[in-house]
Specification:
The structure holds two protein chains of two kinds. Chain A is mainly alpha-helical. Helix content of chain A is 73%, strand content 2%. In chain A, strand 1 and strand 2 form a beta hairpin. In chain B, 75% of the residues lie in helices and 4% in strands. Chain B starts with 7 loop residues before the first helix and ends with a helix. Chain B contains 22 helices and four strands. Chain B is mainly α. In chain B, helix 14 runs parallel beside helix 18 and helix 15 packs antiparallel against helix 17. The chains are: A mainly alpha, B mainly alpha. At the A-B interface, helix 15, helix 16, helix 17 and helix 19 of A face helix 1, strand 3, helix 6 and helix 7 of B.
Amino acid sequence: MHIAVMITVVLLPILGGILIPMLPFRGRREMLWYIEALVLINSILVLTVLLFQPEEAFVLFRFTGNLRVSFHLDGMGKVFAALAAALWPLAALYSFEYMKNDNNEKSFFMFYVITYGVTLGIAMADNILTMYFFFEMMSLVTLPLIMHTRTREAVLASRSYLYYMLGGAAFAFIGMIFILSYGTTSTFVPGGVLDLNKIGDKTNMMLLVYVLCFLGFGVKTAIWPFSGWLPRAGVAPTPVTALLHAVAVVNTGAFATMRITYYSFGTGLLRGTWAQSVVLLLVIFTILYGCSRALKETHIKRRLAWSTVSNLSYILFGVALMSPLGLAGALCHMLFHSFMKIGSFFCAGAVMHETGRSYVHELDGLGRKMPRVFAIFTICGMALMGVPGLAGFVSKWQLAQAAVASENPLAWVGVLALLASALLTAIYMLTISVRAFFPGKEFDYDTVPDVSDPGWMMLLPLVIFVAVIVLFGLHSQPFVEYLQGVALSMPT
Amino acid sequence: MSSLWILSPVLAAWIAGAFLLIWSFAEHLKQNVPKEQSAGSAKQILAGETPDGLSCEPGLGAVHGLAIGALAAAAILALWVAWSGDGSVTLFYLMKDIPIYFQVDGIGRWFVTLVTAVWVPVGIYSARYMRHEGEEKRFFGFYLLLYGVLVCLDFAGNLITMYLFYELMTLTSFPLVLHSGSREAIMAALKYLFYSLCGAYMGLFGIFFLYRFCTNLIFVPGGILSQDVIGQHGGILLAAVMLMLVGFGAKAGMFPLHAWLPAAHPVAPSPASAVLSGIIVKSGVLAVIRVVYYIVGPDFLRGTWVQYTWMALSLTTIFMGSLLAYREPNLKKRLAYSTVSNLSYILFGLAALSPTGFTGALLHVAFHGVVKCGLFLTAGIFLFCCNKTKVEELTGIGQKMPAVLWCYTLLSLTLIGIPPTGGFVSKWYLAQGALEANLGPWSYAGPVILLISALLTAGYLLPLVTKGFFPGEPGQDQESEDIVTERKKPGAAMLIPLLILTALALVMGLFPNALIEYANIISNMLL
């Protein structure tokens, strides 16, 4: 019975989402109730699955031989599923208020809810084929969300999004084929599935394929040189940018790279090779590149998007360390970053929604009008910087410890990059807070539009995110131990 | 004493500080409510002006009462905690094996006493001074928060706890620097913030590596790094320690990262620059002491390239700071450069890695803390009463405000190090320590540069005294009469703290034995 629940959590949002435009709602209110109930019930179901911890895999259907679409929930998947389950109901609540004056709400919410199921599908994918299937689906269902406003800019952004995603998937496909033909099985097994006898002297080719595959899945995490799509996708409504482009979509990319590195190719084959160096170099470069671009950017959402580029590469940095500690750090940052970044985006969205202003220099003095929003934004910013006592410090600590322990000089350079990036983060996040709260003596408060903090539906998620950030910042031990348990079960 | 009582002064300061901040913020929000009124007129209604041009926010008496009362209570508690014996408390575990842990030890006691001795007089001084800057609730709120953070920083028992409060110190002192809200102040404050964060992150890099090789980072006199732990990682560890020295040195204004000091001091309100120069920069010194003498251990660094580089950097800074101060016309900026130079005296003493050098450094921490604070208070009085910032504009000031200029003179003499004063004692020990360290040419270069710098110090501090007391030709005198007109009286609230600090500086200089003894106890424990 538990196994059936597993497939339910994937299918329920997909089917429920498709029903949204068809159901005869008598008003907006009714539709919102339906959506929130759907998402909440699904989240509760996810939690039930997490609690019961089904051991076996659920096979949906088989193609031929060992090719099948099947689901299984392991330690890593649990983390991702729990993250999605925690964020979706809150983000939905936020978007109810944000999308209030939108004409095309129904299609928005349809795809929004469908994406939930697809994300869970990736979290619970049992083998590389299933993951690939949902990975492609993710690109397709999020496309209409970027196009949502139907402006020329949005259409162009979604087109480039599509090209990037299809290109990435093509690379990833190559990797999948090689794993299917050189691996013992397509299922994810801790430590990798490659059959060393089959590879023989083709190690270098396998490494090349790994790099291609890493980049292919890495397109979704906006690794350099494939980071252009993410800031451009910021034309989407803020709930989309916040939940999908700061959390769900980019995290699926990170999650997929973890899967192929630790569960398909296996770190035994990769560690210490040129492939690891290439990947590490790219990731370190992306960390710095993302921050620098964020610093240069004056559009607040695009600035946060570049910040996401850099932070996602923190996660990939942990992945590329190819050690269990690195994996634990990567998972930790994946989770904490989601809360910090979705919080920042929601604050930015609240400001844009209330005032219609979207550039950093237009935010002067708004701290006095929207104190709660900017206070929360400041806390999120400090967490991203890694002030101790907030969640960001914990995950950076894990990543840095893993890097130091790896005894790889390139990883040590990576630690330097992490800290340089922290400084840049401080600059691009705190200047916004300073502008908002201390606009200067000569500042004329008459120029500030007469706005106030948004309603409870937008504030409640923000408050919860801040609570989580502080809670994990002050007391992360059980959680970190769980992650290390997941990672250390891996044969090295 | 081993209980949560250690944190009682912190709690007292934080509760009062948070209350004042919330009060200040709530008031601003209230100003927004009448929509038809512009923000400017609302402000005028709320904040009237007294006849002598000072702002008079409503409830000012209550603010002062609360702030000074809480400060006094926190100060008494802090001194009681510091001097009632060693103690420690583990608050909670931030991460596995990493507790937030406080302990009261010799060096913490030394710094807390200094902080308290400076914080209370400057607090009283601000009660009057800040009426000229406005936004007093916000100022006192952060002032109190910062006091609590500093007490935590001084009592921190491991490196992570120290790092936590080091960052918090930067973040809470930041609003004090930008207090006036002018564009210049905001830019300077941001510069301060980013230099400090840059330094802190360099320190964090070192902490990552030290944690790997030390397993726990509790401060133990003499260090916890043993040869067998280091193994083949000596090279990278030395590099990490060097980064930490430069990083934490940023707060202490050491050479490559010193530029924030002369930017931040002139724009901050005078009480804020006083504590910035007297206390906050000393936290950088404390961090260096904790890393070198309590974690890494002086033996690990002795004779390595790190020691030589550190020495070279600090000597460069001493010379450069004095020279820049000598060329600087703005009084507060001149004092800021003087701080750059003097803080490197301390770092130089620490770099000698010898007991005498350490004693000298500790003594200079105390003397410089009190003296520089006093000097900034006099600069503040000049600014408050005559609205003068440049040294040459203050010609003839001694005839108008003899008491203030006498205090300035005595404090200057102490800083220069004329024999019976405190500066002489500490510099004597610093020079001795450098010679004791046996570093060849470096040992000799140290005292020579100290001497040159002392001459320069006289050169940049004393012109104000001569010009102030002896304005020179009558024609110039006439002119200065016009310039130096007292707009406002300093009042007892500003004079008494200055007198206290001056007296303190003199007493410490004339009877330094108790201090020397205590500093020797600490340094003998470490080396």
